[in-house]
Design goal:
heterodimer, A: mainly alpha, ABC transporter involved in vitamin B12 uptake, BtuC, two-stranded antiparallel ribbon, 11 helices, 71% helix, B: alpha/beta, Rossmann fold, 6-stranded mixed beta sheet, 4-stranded antiparallel beta sheet, elongated
């Protein structure tokens, strides 16, 4: 039972990070129809910023907000420089463009920083854990879970109560109508990228806080998983992205905890296999997006 | 396949063979480069068979290539070698030893079987979801190859595969791949799949089973890519699982995208361009000496180069360098008439049996909103029924339910007494229900003739392509579209596009035809001309027509019967004259106050 609770806490923590990433992807997808492959590189940029801040001697409490701000700026620059020219193109065009941006950035990290993994200086406090009966809960897990939940609450408030948030939700349902109603395309899209950059930044900080290192491909694999989570939840649905992120976190952690040893090498394949099987049952995801199947004929 | 296409394909083949001969005579690194080029080309053509025709990008094809390389390697590796490299392999694999050809056949069939299983899931998903699932496939197969250490040596190098791929083998397979890809694109399967790429909903309404078409092309494309996998394995002799992951996926996708993924020429152009650029960049990667200045060693120059090429092409020409045209279509435009006139020109359509379509108490709710509330209606062969009502009264929703594009919340739709409510649109199309769309939904990138051919081919293969061609001719002639038959549909004028919609619906040879605002946006003359044509349809084809339009004079002159919908209810039904005078109808159109005035003028 204690092991189960321990694993559940791990699952919430990992799932929360996937949820933040998937949410960032879903916001962009719902508004632009774009699958942003370079989302992971925003996470990597966050990691490198933390590393440099650590080297410069900044305390983590200051380094983290700086890193997240850099991620937001990077997302805005990415949108302005790389994605605006293909904004009205097909989904495939936008996807390939972002894939190219991701690969270029990864290669630049390898050349300009290092192809190898770099250590990030973290406060000792993060590595400690609280003992609670027979449980030991890491400080960084507590932080990760509480930060994830806080972010989700704030984002929910933002999307429901602020003008820009409402414009973004309207744009997610039908961008052309939202534009006719006066939502400004550039503001909405820049807003979406800023939010997705912030989410990638937070996810990056949480990721680094658990691993204390950063490498050029740091963001690539978690974002791949987040894509899968977004599909599992229902592509374009924000609630679905969060649900899918947590679901994938649970599937992965429980498989890691309870699979027999000789099947462990196939763990990752099995986790994704389960997701694909779930998609067979629910092709539009766990929480389908509003406009699925509503195309006007 | 037209004569022009065959000449074009022949051109590619000559190009490939010439390149192979030149490279073989030079030998050395040029020959090796060309072998790799041929293998990449096969893989790209394979990917194009699926992605190009369906419009859905795939990251998963490298997984098939990987499976093929490992499996064929295990099959052809000498038994003695396997005792060393794969000491723990299961007996049946450890003792297997096949020649190159048999191993290739076994491998390709195995990969196609795997693709069939995976494809059942992927073909159910739309666009972006399908793409990401293929990404999942790549990660899954990568994980399995690393996990299955007994037969793959995990993440270590897999070696001992006989190096049997030479330039002759690679070139012959490339020729095979290019012919298969080109023939597939213009085949019935390719045509239907491309229709679904341009407009999935309309393709369904014209009888295309989109999932099945996607599955067929997915399996075929996996087979082609498997050949590339066998070849690369037997070319390298030793490889590791990294060969079949993101780096190579990126390079192959670049080849597919840069040339233009919709065409075979695009795949060829992309493969040539990216191979040339990569070769060049690979040489300067280690640093070169330019006028005494030593450039620094740059890691991943090729990656950045390919990335920049992709960005440049996507910004300037997002459909790829060659976009949607095959080279033969550019080079040989009018040299050869595209089609020989069909011998069996038809003057009358094949006879269809009389029938009855009934809607019984159809209800459709969108969340809380009742768009249709127990609507009943009947349509007999040879009858023209008008469906009118104010905006938002549920006319189009009714057509959508009856043509299978929306599921009904309650109620049944019957054809000749048989329940057809749960059937998807493509099945209804085969049962004789055809329609046009209010907001034109043509297959934009295809010619007018191809648009119409898609629905005419619904009865293929039980009826020949020749009779489909004859049906197309008849439909084009009926709608007076012969002169624009070879024009790309999206470039036509609005009125002509509406006519193509009708022609395309006719080519299904329907028993019941739904026309959703066929005259919308037309001027008086165009409307009158259209009306004459529509009247002719009944005499010539004998089908029942259900027509929605806001042009009341048109409806009144054309229809035998008129059904009036208001807020999801049928409020009146009968002959045009009686409906016109019905106070409820007048009220629905003009409001209560207006209706009293009109009633006053009518009784005077």
């Amino acid at each position: 039972m204690e092991i189960f609770i321990q694993q559940t806490i791990n699952a919430v923590s990992l799932g929360g990070t996937y949820a933040l990433l998937a949410l960032g992807l879903a916001i962009i997808f719902s508004i632009m129809g774009m699958i942003n492959f370079a989302h992971g590189e925003l996470m990597t940029i966050t990691g490198y910023t933390l590393m440099y801040c650590g080297i410069a001697g900044f305390p983590f409490i200051i380094a983290a907000p700086i890193a997240i701000t850099i991620a937001i700026l990077a997302a805005l620059i990415m949108e302005r420089v790389a994605f605006r020219p293909v904004r009205n193109s097909s989904g495939a065009t936008m996807l390939v463009t972002s894939f190219a941006v991701a690969v270029i950035l990864q290669t630049l990290f390898q050349n300009l920083i290092s192809p190898r993994s770099q250590a990030v200086i973290l406060p000792d406090m993060l590595a400690q854990s609280i003992h609670f009966g027979g449980l030991s809960i890491g400080i960084n897990q507590i932080l990760s879970i509480s930060i994830t939940l806080t972010i989700l609450v704030i984002l929910n408030w933002f999307l429901r109560k602020t003008i820009l948030g409402m414009a973004m939700r309207a744009a997610a349902e039908d961008f052309s109508v939202a534009r006719l109603m006066g939502a400004r395309a550039n503001a909405v899209i820049a807003g979406a990228f800023a939010i997705s950059g912030a989410l990638a930044g937070v996810a990056g900080v949480l990721w680094v806080a658990q691993r204390a290192s950063v490498d050029p491909l740091m963001g690539f694999i978690p974002v791949l998983k987040a894509f899968i989570a977004a599909i599992l939840g229902g592509l374009g649905s924000l609630t679905g992205a969060v649900a899918g992120g947590f679901a994938l976190g649970f599937i992965e952690i429980y498989l890691a905890a309870y699979l027999p040893d000789h099947i462990q090498p196939y763990r990752e394949a099995l986790a994704l296999g389960i997701v694909i099987f779930l998609l067979l049952l629910r092709p539009h995801g766990l929480v389908p997006a509003f406009n699925v199947g509503r195309e006007k004929v | 396949m037209t004569a022009r296409t065959w000449i074009g394909t022949g051109g590619y083949v000559v190009f490939l063979i010439a390149a192979a001969l030149i490279a073989a005579s030079i030998g050395g690194s040029i020959e090796r480069t060309l072998v790799v080029f041929f293998i990449s080309l096969i893989a790209v053509l394979g990917m194009g068979v699926y992605s190009g025709n369906s419009g859905i990008l795939s990251f998963g094809h490298l997984a098939f290539m990987g499976i093929a390389a490992y499996l064929s390697g295990i099959l052809t590796m000498p038994v003695a070698m396997k005792k060393v490299t794969l000491a723990h392999a299961p007996t049946f694999l450890a003792n297997a030893h096949l020649d190159f050809f048999s191993a290739t056949v076994v491998t390709v069939l195995f990969v196609m079987a795997v693709a069939l299983v995976v494809g059942v899931v992927i073909s159910r998903l739309d666009g972006s979801s399908a793409t990401i699932t293929t990404l999942g496939l790549l990660v899954i197969v990568h994980g399995i190859i690393i996990g299955a250490r007994e037969i793959t040596r995990g993440s270590q190098s897999f070696f001992g595969v006989p190096r049997w791929t030479d330039i002759t083998v690679a070139a012959s397979c490339a020729v095979l791949a290019i012919v298969v890809a080109r023939v597939f694109k213009d085949s019935v399967f390719g045509l239907k799949l491309r229709a679904s790429r341009d407009d999935q909903l309309a393709a369904g309404a014209m009888g295309v089973n989109v999932r099945r078409q996607r599955l067929i092309s997915w399996v075929l494309s996996a087979g082609l890519v498997a050949i590339a996998g066998v070849l690369i394995g037997h070319f390298l002799g030793a490889f590791s699982v990294k060969k079949f992951y993101f780096v190579d996926t990126f390079a192959l996708l670049a080849m597919l995208i840069v040339g233009g993924m919709a065409t075979v020429s695009g795949a060829l152009a992309g493969a040539v361009l990216i191979t040339l650029v990569s070769e060049f960049l690979r040489r300067i990667e280690g640093g070169v000496d330019i006028l005494g200045y030593q450039t620094p060693q740059l890691f991943g120059t090729t990656q950045i180069g390919i990335g920049l090429i992709i960005l440049l092409v996507m910004y300037k020409k997002s459909g790829g360098l060659l976009d949607r045209l095959e080279l033969d279509e550019i080079v040989l435009p009018k040299l050869l008439k595209d089609r020989v006139a069909t011998a069996a020109r038809r003057s009358s359509p094949p006879v269809v049996p009389d029938g009855l379509l009934e809607a019984r108490e159809i209800t459709k709710a969108f969340d809380g909103l009742l768009a249709l509330d127990k609507v009943s209606l009947a349509l007999k062969s040879g009858e023209i029924v008008g469906l009118i009502g104010p905006n938002g009264s549920g006319k189009t929703t009714l057509l959508n339910v009856l043509s299978g594009m929306l599921p009904a919340t309650a109620g049944t739709a019957l054809i000749d007494g048989k329940d057809m409510t749960p059937l998807p649109a493509y099945r209804l199309a085969s049962m004789g229900v055809s329609r046009t769309f209010q907001n034109i939904r043509l297959f934009g990138s295809m010619s007018v003739r191809q648009n119409v051919l898609v629905s005419a081919l619904d009865k293929w293969p039980s009826s020949s392509t020749r009779s489909a061609d004859a049906m197309v001719d008849l439909a084009l002639e009926t709608m007076k579209l012969e002169s624009v038959a070879e024009t790309q549909a999206s470039t036509l004028s609005y009125g002509d596009q509406r006519r193509v919609e009708v022609a395309r619906a006719l080519a299904l040879n329907p028993r019941f035809l739904f026309l959703d605002e066929p005259a919308a946006g037309m001027n008086r003359e165009e409307t009158d001309a259209l009306m004459d044509d529509l009247k002719g349809l009944r005499e010539q084809f004998g089908m029942g027509i259900l027509i929605v339009d806001h042009d009341l004079p048109l409806i009144m002159r054309l229809c035998d019967r008129v059904v009036v919908l208001n807020e999801g209810h049928v409020i009146a039904e009968g002959e045009p004259q009686s409906v016109q005078k019905n106070p409820k109808v007048i009220e629905a159109y003009l409001g209560r106050k207006g209706s009293r005035q009109v009633a006053g003028t009518l009784t005077e």
